[in-house]
Design goal:
With 415 residues, this protein is α/β, with parallel strands linked by helices. It is built from twelve helices and 17 strands. The strands form three sheets. Strands 1, 2, 3, 4, 5, 15, 16 and 17 form an eight-stranded mixed β-sheet that branches. A six-stranded parallel β-sheet has the order 10-9-11-12-13-14. Strand 2 and strand 3 form a beta hairpin. The longest helix has 24 residues. The radius of gyration is 21 Å and the shape is globular. It binds zinc ion. The site of zinc ion (ZN) has 4 residues, from loops.
Length: 415
């Protein structure tokens, strides 16, 4: 692969540090060999020097909550019975490719994507971000992972051995289910202790699922297998149970503001907050009245939860919860975080440095620092003055993943 030098751009390194202009980033093979505040010293003859003056360089972006293999909320889509599996697989591959081309070099999938996609990317069969997969949602009978139609039927969910059933039938069943999910290739355990905006009418955002003993068994087993636990929890009793049981991240967390002491516990225990604002903008326009009502009700709590989380010192990671609402640009969530009160620099950190920490991969990527994998995005313009440019493919001229060029639109630009 040799050496690539990116010179003259403004560096936002993902650590929360202020931008540095006129930076030089030296990439050798897969890694960042040097980051200099000015020009680089002597370089080998065959070095590829890319002048990015006037542009911004960021760490590869990270989405900590996505559903890459989901393509709509309606039942037939969710159950995968509306089109041939091969079509669906290729549809997902297409989303993975486009996501990488927009500068997202790592994605944590919050259920639906099987481990085969990760293998296909690692083998170079398709292009895509680095993946951290959870396969399915572990929840009790009646929880959000229990696939039952509104009329009570369970007949039509195809059995896919790569996406094990995540329904837990009591505390004795927790450990075997976690082990089966890990056996099928999960890098992280996804579970749910509350309903959500889009769950069935009787199972709303503050309705609980799981008891404390079940959740303790779940986190203990996951951690024994070196897997983190990402827990869907919006509010009420289930939210407290998740935090007390020691999950590693709270997904959604809309009603954290109602129990601020939970935020102090999160800060103390290093539990991340992944708010997923983008999905609720979609749910507020849902054709289903109960979904619309829930999404509207939680909105101001959600914003207050983010504000209090920042004050409490909880680390926030960006996640779109895309899939059900199609696949809008992942950087939409960065815009949502800014609208909800984060500074643009903080919001970028939530999608880079903090996101990598949330995944437990901060030693490998998430910041532009010597020794890290060269996952890097070049942005045409200043995302600190307008974060929405990250949603425009014409403003993402260059993406490197592990030192390899994953997208190159520089050639098309007038130089
Ligand atoms: Zn989700």
């Amino acid at each position: 692969m040799g050496m690539i030098v990116l010179k003259g751009g403004t560096l936002i390194d993902g650590t929360g540090a202020e931008p540095v202009s006129g930076a030089t980033i030296v990439v050798r093979d897969q890694r960042i060999e040097a980051v200099a505040k000015g020009p680089a010293g002597e370089l080998p003859q065959d070095t590829e020097i890319i002048d990015i003056a006037g542009m911004t360089i960021l760490p590869g972006l990270i989405d900590c909550h996505d559903h890459m293999a989901m393509h709509g909320y309606d039942l037939a889509r969710r159950w995968g019975i509306d089109e041939p599996q091969s079509t669906r697989t290729l549809r997902t591959a297409n989303v993975l490719e486009q996501t990488l081309a927009m500068g997202y070099t790592a994605v944590r999938d919050a259920a639906g994507l099987d481990a085969g996609f990760k293998r296909a990317i690692d083998e170079g069969l398709i292009a895509g971000p680095r993946l951290v997969v959870s396969l399915c949602i572990i929840s009790p009978i009646g929880g959000i992972g229990d696939r039952v139609s509104p009329s009570g039927f369970t007949c039509c969910v195809p059995h896919d051995p790569l996406l094990p059933d995540g329904v837990v039938n009591g505390v004795a069943d927790v450990r075997p289910v976690v082990r089966r999910v890990v056996r099928a290739g999960a890098d992280v355990i996804k579970c749910a202790t509350t309903g959500g905006a889009s769950s069935r009418p009787e199972h709303g955002p503050r309705d609980g699922a799981f008891n404390l003993d079940e959740m303790q068994a779940l986190t203990e087993e996951a951690h024994a297998l070196d897997r983190r636990v990402m827990c869907h929890a919006l509010g009420g009793r289930g939210l407290r149970i998740a935090i007390e049981a020691g999950v590693d991240s709270i997904e959604h967390g809309c009603y954290l503001d109602e129990e601020p002491e939970l935020l102090d516990m999160m800060a103390e225990r290093g539990i991340f907050f992944v708010p997923t604002f983008a999905v609720y903008d979609f749910h507020r326009k849902s054709p289903l009245p109960h979904v619309r009502e829930r999404a509207r009700h939680l909105q101001e709590h959600h914003v207050a939860s983010l504000r209090r989380a920042r004050v409490a010192g909880v680390k926030v990671a960006a996640g779109t919860d895309a899939g059900g609402h199609g696949h809008p640009k992942n950087a939409l969530e960065i815009e949502c975080l800014v609208k909800a009160g984060m500074t643009p620099l903080e919001a970028l950190r939530a999608a880079t440095g903090w996101a990598a920490e949330c995944l437990g991969r901060e030693h490998e990527f998430g910041t532009v620092e010597k020794g890290k994998l060269a996952d890097v995005v070049v942005v045409d313009g200043d995302p600190l003055s307008d974060v929405t440019i990250l949603q425009d493919p014409d403003r993402i001229p260059l993406v490197l993943k592990g030192g390899r060029i994953a997208a190159d639109r520089l050639a098309k630009k007038p130089r």
